[in-house]
Design a protein that fits this description.
The structure holds two protein chains of two kinds. Chain A is α/β, with parallel strands linked by helices. Chain A is 42% helix and 31% strand. In chain A, helix 1 packs parallel to helix 2. Chain B has one domain: Heat Shock Protein 90. Classes of the chains: A alpha/beta, B alpha+beta.
């Protein structure tokens, strides 16, 4: 059982875009890693963050709070966060707390990237 | 004819109240839940409730004191139910004072509180708090807080 969080992230400054892939568990003990990456993206002037959650098998309220506050911060600068490929466990938690109605959630990374590019082009 | 296979189990675990112990507790509880016959999606819900409960204890009950402990008891009846009891000796709180999360509210202003409590109540059938319980010394702490969470299959 995977008890840690692994993050792969890439920032494309020229596109004002950060792509993140999360694997494992996003809880109070691991959420700091994601918080730092999202803060770095903000500093780099990124307007769109695409987060691939296909290999994320667990999220708790700590993870949800960080995602919501990052979304709020980036939207103040006319940006947004785009989530994709949520697994069953994660999707259920998003539905429970009402986040599914708030976040842009896409089935595939391609669709999320398309939406991100559209936002940046504006 | 008697069967040697027990349908009831009762397991205990005590951990330091620290975030790096969260996984130990959720794994411990999840293992008992699996033995009792809870399906993977149900086990994820149980883990979430336990995670949120422990996080609250670490962050709020023991906020300004190091060395606190969380005592975890898991009782199961095979194919029937799981009863999880968490005991701490930190600060009591009034669940009624915690803002109630509303999933239909406007989340844009991000003033979000009570998410953990909300998730515990959503994922478990019964969530019960008791504060300042007088313990039977020396088997129990003199005073403690007890959270009982129950889920039926």
């Amino acid at each position: 059982m995977n008890s840690v969080l692994a993050i792969r992230s890439e920032t494309h400054k020229e596109r004002a875009l950060t792509q993140v892939k999360l694997s494992g568990r996003l809880d109070a003990s691991t959420v700091g890693q994601l918080e730092r990456i999202l803060a770095d993206a903000q500093l780099a002037g990124v307007r769109a963050v695409v987060i691939d959650m296909s290999d994320l098998n667990y999220v708790s309220s700590s993870g949800l709070r960080v995602l919501l506050s990052a979304r709020s911060a980036i939207r103040k600068r006319n940006g947004d966060i785009f989530l994709c490929s949520l697994g069953r466990n994660v999707r259920e938690v998003f539905d429970m707390v009402g986040f599914s109605a708030v976040f842009g959630i896409f089935d595939t990374p391609e669709q999320a990237l398309q939406a991100a590019d559209k936002l940046i082009a504006h | 004819m008697s069967s040697t296979q027990s349908t009831h189990s009762d397991e205990l675990l005590t951990v330091p109240a620290r975030f790096d112990q969260l996984r130990r507790v959720t794994e411990f509880v999840s293992r008992q839940a699996e033995r009792a016959g809870f399906a993977p999606l149900e086990r994820n819900r149980i883990e979430l409730a336990v995670d949120e409960a422990c996080s609250n204890i670490i962050q709020h009950a023991y906020a300004d004191q190091a060395g606190g402990l969380i005592r975890v008891r898991v009782q199961t009846e095979a194919r029937s139910r799981i009863v999880i009891t968490l005991v701490d000796t930190g600060k009591p709180f009034d669940p009624g004072d915690v803002p109630q999360h509303d999933p239909k509210a406007n989340l844009d202003d991000m003033k979000i509180g009570g998410l953990g409590l909300y998730l515990m109540r959503q994922t478990m059938d019964d969530v019960r708090f008791e504060f300042n319980v007088r313990g039977r010394w020396p088997r129990e702490p003199k005073r403690f807080n007890r959270l009982t969470m129950i889920k039926d299959i």
